[in-house]
Amino acid sequence: MTDSSEANRKYIYRRNKLIEHLRSRGIKDEVLLEAMSKVPRHLFVDTALEHRAYEDSALPIGKGQTISQPYTVAAQTELLEVKEGEKVLEIGTGSGYQAAILCEMGAELYSIERHDELYLRARETLRKLGYRVQLKLGDGTKGWSAYAPYDAIVVTAGAPVVPRELISQLKISGRLVIPVGGRDRQKMIRITRISEDAYEEEHLSNFKFVPLVGESGWKTEEPE
Ligand code: SAM
């Protein structure tokens, strides 16, 4: 047996443990849990952090950013209620991990990242693993009108307000899941477009995300 297959077996074991943990924390969507049991999170972090990839914690990915905690990824993705073949826009590609999960769930995925270094690394990781994601380098607070409207939009960074552009890029019955609040703590909000100009808004639990920086986000990464 080679070292790499031993390592792989070790990671499969740890990944299954993580799935059990997510179930114990209340995650129920079986399609999501199945996707999370397939995506090798250790390949989305620096090799020096690989051994921590299946802990339920956020980890640094460079540029002051993080790969979100697995529970956060699961909770946010569950709220999106994505069905196979739906068109999904992610704001904040980061490592590409959540994008890979949404692909595994059968979404047609579009994702935007503002840091070129992270955008390039995520593009390479997703390509190597065979995930087909349309990636863009830029300010995701403006959405991606070229491919709109979307069945679901997920924002993986904390916003001071809900960017209007994102709401306008939802299909009727489309869902926007976004953490909104201060820099230290945000409330997860799900907005569902009921009709051309009617929306339903649900306020859910508290989370802590890195800031959404852009035209309709925070103006800087650090507090001024
Ligand atoms: N979903 C990511 C993953 O699975 O690794 C987690 C991403 S991290 C918590 C949030 C990301 O949002 C960071 O990479 C950050 O650079 C990015 N970001 C912040 N503001 C942004 C914006 N306006 N447009 C696009 N990306 C943004």
Task: Write a compact overview of the structure shown.
With 224 residues, the protein is an alpha/beta fold. Helices cover 30% and strands 27% of the residues. A 7-stranded mixed β-sheet has the order 5-4-3-6-7-8-9.
Structural class: alpha/beta
- Distinct small molecules: S-adenosylmethionine
Major sheet attributes:
7 strands, mixed
* Relative helix content: 25-40%
Strand content: 25-35%
Mean of pLDDT: 96
Unreliable spans: none
Oligomeric category: single chain
Can you tell me the number of structural domains? 1
Strand order of the largest sheet: 5-4-3-6-7-8-9
> How much is the radius of gyration in Å?
17 Å
Q: What is the name of the CATH superfamily? A: Vaccinia Virus protein VP39
Distance separating the two termini: 54 Å
CATH architecture: 3-Layer(aba) Sandwich
What features would you describe in this structure?
The protein is α/β, with parallel strands linked by helices and about 220 residues long. It has a single domain (about 5-205), classed as Rossmann fold. It is about 30% helix and about 25% strand. The protein is built from six helices and nine strands; from the N terminus they run ααββαβαβαββαβββ. It has helices at about 5-25, 30-40, 70-80, 95-105, 115-130, 165-170; strands spanning about 60, 65, 85-90, 110-115, 135, 150-155, 170-180, 185-195, 200-205. The strands form two sheets. A seven-stranded mixed β-sheet has the order 5-4-3-6-7-8-9. Helix 1 packs antiparallel against helix 2. It is globular, with a radius of gyration of 17 Å. The structure holds S-adenosylmethionine.
